[in-house]
């Protein structure tokens, strides 16, 4: 086991912590009357991200050099991830869960970008493999992510449109 595997294990530990937070937020939101939209695609995201980490761990040689600039970019993407999670607060989940009547979040990156988390994820899926010289894995998982993300955005937009209609807000309002 080398630096690439250690880094992947650290990312996996971070993701497990995020899943615990997401599950707690999801349970709370559902208890408050929220509903989940598009649950059928969720296992595909779990498979994609789990497969990405497993492939990086198993297929990257232990002695593969780690590009420090790309690793630094990955760390910046993690800061973006934390910013997204902090901006959504109790509304952040890994699922599409919407609470009728809840305010749309318009702080943090949501002031400028409609779906900042999906931009962060797209960057992560490409940058970490590239940091280890794994161009094929970067391309493969980026391509696998595209149709899932497009579908997810459509599901999320539909869920948020329902909230906008019931709240009387302008449909052009940022979606959080």
List the main descriptive attributes of the protein structure presented here.
176 residues, mainly alpha, two-stranded antiparallel ribbon, 66% helix, elongated, disordered C terminus
Structure described in brief:
With 176 residues, this protein is mainly alpha-helical. The chain has helices at residues 3-31, 42-59, 68-88, 116-131, 135-167; strands at residues 35-37, 96-98.
Report helical residue fraction: 55-70%
User: Stretches where pLDDT falls below 50 for ≥5 residues?
Assistant: 167-176
> Can you write the helix and strand succession as a string?
HEHHEHH
Overall outline: elongated
Number of helices: 5
Strand content: under 5%
Which structural class matches the secondary elements? mainly alpha
Integer-rounded radius of gyration: 17 Å
* Count of beta strands: 2
In round numbers, the mean pLDDT is 93
Widest β-sheet, arrangement of strands: 1-2
Taking the sheet with the most strands, its summary is: 2 strands, antiparallel
Report, as a whole number of angstroms, the end-to-end distance: 41 Å
Please explain how this structure is put together.
By secondary structure, the protein is mostly helical. Helix content is 66%, strand content 3%. It has five helices and two strands. It has a two-stranded antiparallel ribbon with strand order 1-2. The termini are far apart.
Question: What does the secondary structure layout of this molecule look like, with pairings?
Answer:
Layout: H1 3-31, E1 35-37, H2 42-59, H3 68-88, E2 96-98, H4 116-131, H5 135-167
Antiparallel strand pairs: 1-2
Helix pairs in contact: 1-2, 2-5, 3-4, 4-5
């Amino acid at each position: 086991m080398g630096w690439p595997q250690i880094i992947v294990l650290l990312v996996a530990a971070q993701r497990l912590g995020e899943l615990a937070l997401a599950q707690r937020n999801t349970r709370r939101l559902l208890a408050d009357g929220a509903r989940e939209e598009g649950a059928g695609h969720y296992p595909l995201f779990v498979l994609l991200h789990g497969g990405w980490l497993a492939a990086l761990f198993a297929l990257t040689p232990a002695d593969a050099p780690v590009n420090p600039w790309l690793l630094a970019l990955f760390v910046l993407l993690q800061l973006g991830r934390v910013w997204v999670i902090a901006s959504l607060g109790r509304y952040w989940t890994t699922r599409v869960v919407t609470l009728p009547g809840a305010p749309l979040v318009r702080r943090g990156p949501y002031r400028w970008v409609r779906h900042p988390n999906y931009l962060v994820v797209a960057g992560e899926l490409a940058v970490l493999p590239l940091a280890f010289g794994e161009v094929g894995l970067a391309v493969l998982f980026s391509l696998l992510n595209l149709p899932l993300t497009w579908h997810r955005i459509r599901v999320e937009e539909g869920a948020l449109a329902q909230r906008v209609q019931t709240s009387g807000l302008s449909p052009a309002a940022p979606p959080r």
